[in-house]
Write a structure and sequence with these properties.
Helix content is about 65%, strand content about 0%. It has helices at about 10-25, 30-40, 40-50, 55-65, 70-75. Helix 2 crosses helix 3. The longest helix has 16 residues, at about 10-25. The chain starts with 11 loop residues before the first helix and ends with a helix.
């Protein structure tokens, strides 16, 4: 799967949001499915993916655990 490219002017929450989107798509889940696993509304999770809200660290940890992803990659891309 091709990962998103990030524009230099992107904010941190936008970049993290795109990484959340990449992880969710890698799992083959809809926003609704992942939101339900996190006990959130679809709308709340959508805001995190779109970079409209900062995702709390607890949410990032949960998503990383569900996806088997590295938290460092989720935060820094490394």
């Amino acid at each position: 799967m091709k990962m998103h490219e990030y524009a230099p002017e992107s904010s941190a929450k936008e970049v993290v949001g795109l990484r959340l989107l990449d992880l969710r798509r890698r799992l083959g889940w809809t926003q609704g499915v992942l939101a339900a696993k996190l006990w959130f509304s679809d709308r709340t999770y959508k805001y995190y993916e779109q970079g409209q809200r900062d995702a709390p660290v607890t949410v990032l940890l949960q998503v990383a655990a569900l996806a088997g992803a590295d938290m460092q990659w989720l935060l820094t891309g490394e």
